[in-house]
Amino acid sequence: MFLITGASTGIGAATARQAAEAGYRLVLAARSEDKLSGLAEELGGDERAIAVRCDVTEWEDQQALVQRALDAYGRLDVAFANAGFGGPRGFDKGEVGEWKQMVLTNVYGAALTIRATMAALKDSRGHLLLTGSVAGRRALPGSLYSATKWAVTAMGEAARQDFNDTGVRVTLIEPGMVDTPFFDSPPSIEALKAEDVARGVMYAVSQPPHVDVNEILMRPTDQPT
């Protein structure tokens, strides 16, 4: 069974479709219930995919999400901490309330997903994935989003070490520019598609149990930095 946060659009939705094609049953989580329910129906309904409203910044929501997954399908094989969002660059730009929510979602929310899924992943000797970013490997001018993704980069390695000797694999997916609803306007270059990133996710998941692909850093060919 494959659990995905931030599953209603973009990378999350594309990964859900590819995971379904690979034979996984799915638990799809997001704050947007309408799109989520439509995706679950598309992927087979309750027998194959269920939609669960979840605010990743709320510990009770995360616990309920994992329990719903276990109640529905009995085990958790893959957990993909994908929920996140960005904002305008510049420490004098944007609303400070949005900053707080971004840090809570991108950093605290990812950490809560690790904690909530940890026992079930150990039971299944499963796989944890986190959505990082190229922005988590090089600082962007005035970007608090970049700082949150640096935190996710560290979190991926910290989780790998924490899971060591349990059989659980940990992968950090670090895309560059992706043409998804994340951006307010279309990218100026031929960006990655959500489906491209999803293939990276499925590549890591499909490796033999003794192979742990820890990081996948991927950029559009035309992205200069």
Please give a structural write-up.
By secondary structure, this protein is of the alpha/beta class. It has a single domain (2-218), classed as NAD(P)-binding Rossmann-like Domain (Rossmann fold). It contains 6 helices and 7 strands; from the N terminus they run E-H-E-H-E-H-E-H-E-H-E-H-E. It has helices at residues 10-21, 33-42, 59-73, 96-124, 144-163, 194-205, and strands spanning 2-5, 26-30, 49-53, 78-81, 127-131, 169-175, 215-218. It has a 7-stranded parallel β-sheet, with helices on both faces. The longest helix has 29 residues, at 96-124. The relative contact order is 0.14.
Q: How would you summarize the topology of this molecule?
A:
Layout: E1 2-5, H1 10-21, E2 26-30, H2 33-42, E3 49-53, H3 59-73, E4 78-81, H4 96-124, E5 127-131, H5 144-163, E6 169-175, H6 194-205, E7 215-218
Helix pairs in contact: 1-6, 3-4, 4-5
